[in-house]
Amino acid sequence: MCLVRALTPPFGAYTAMSAQLVGSFRHTHSRLNEFAEEIAFLGGEETEKLLLEREYGVVMKHENRVLRARWWHGCLEEVGQLPINQVDWYQQKCREL
Prior knowledge:
This protein is mainly alpha-helical. The chain has 5 helices and no strands.
């Protein structure tokens, strides 16, 4: 069980980072909403689109990384809960390879 704890990713830090990234994305989106008329008048649509897509991409990349970490951690927990005889059998099979 100590091994599972040692291999557990820092989910608290991941959650804090997610909140920070989503806050940054929301700020960019609200800035776009606030200055929409000026952006349209001055032809800054492409620049604003690139800014929003970049912020969104960072959020999605982080969230996908967190989901992968949660999936692998779930797999590790399941293996950690196997009965001892199954673990011994698995270790024996690994040695044979």
